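Summary for the funding panel

The consortium committed to producing paired sequence-structure records for every protein in the target list. Below we show the first two records in order, beginning with the earlier of the two.
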Amino acid sequence: MSVDEQVLIQRGDPELDKIICNLRKRKFDRHKDWDLRMKELDRNLNKAANKNPFQMLHDYSSRFKDGILRKQTDVTAEERTEPAEIQTSTRERIENEQGKMKDTYNQKKCETTTYKSGQAVVRKRTPTPTGEPTKTQPKYRGPFIIKDVLPGNTYRVTQLGEKSKGHSYSTTCKPAKGMAELNCF
C-alpha cells in the first residue's frame, strides 16, 4: 500500500482526495527546486473548503515567506551557527532566568525566627469554643522560658512561675505558621 493510499484511507475526506490526486499528477521539472514548488502548492486556496492544502493536512496555516527549506539550503558556511553555540547560548539564557527567579523568590521568603536557651517568650493560644465571642479570650499563653533548642527549629519551653498541682507546664513548639507561634516577650 502506497503512502498516498494510506493518507486517503486515514483521512477519507473528498476535498483532500482531490488535492492528493492533483499533487500526484503534477511533476517537478528539476529535483533541486521542489521546495519552491511545494510553497506554491501549499499557498493555493481550495475554493470548496476555503483552505489551502497545508492547512487541511496539518490544521494550521504555514507562514514561511520563501520556504524554510530554501533558507536552510542557501545558508553559507559563515552564516551557519554551530549547534553547540546555540546550546550554550540557550543554556546561559536559562541559567540567567533561573537566577532572576531565585532572587525574586528569596526577596519574598521570610527568614525563620530563632531563639536562644533561657529567652522568655509567649505562645499563641487557639480560641476555645465556649459559645461566647472568642474576641475576649486571651490570645497568648505564657510567659515561657526556652529550656532546650531542639533540631528542626523546635523548642522545649516551660511555663514561668505558676505551678498547678506541684508541676510546671512544659511542651515543645515551633515558631511556624499553623503551629504554636513564639513571640518575644
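The next record, for a separate protein in the list, is shown here:
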Amino acid sequence: METREGGDVYASDEPQAQLQQRVDFCLQIHNESVKAMRYPLNTHKAELDSAVAARERERELAQEIEEGGADMDEEDDDWV
C-alpha cells in the first residue's frame, strides 16, 4: 500500500480564507443582534431625574440629622 504525501496545508491560502469566513460570520451575527436591540427613547432622562431627587432627599435627611443631633446634644445627654 502506498500513500500519497499531502502538501503543506498552511502554505496555501485556505486557513486564512476559513478564518476570514468565521470572522465575517461572527461580525454578521453581532451586527444583526445590535440592530435587533430596541431601546425606548429618553428613558435615561427619567433615571437622571430620579437620581437627582434621591440626592436631594439624602441632603435634606443629612441636614435634618445634623440639626437634630445638635438639638439632642444640647437638650438630652442621657438618652444614649
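Regarding this second record: DSSP finds two helices and no strands in the chain. Residues 31-80 form one domain.
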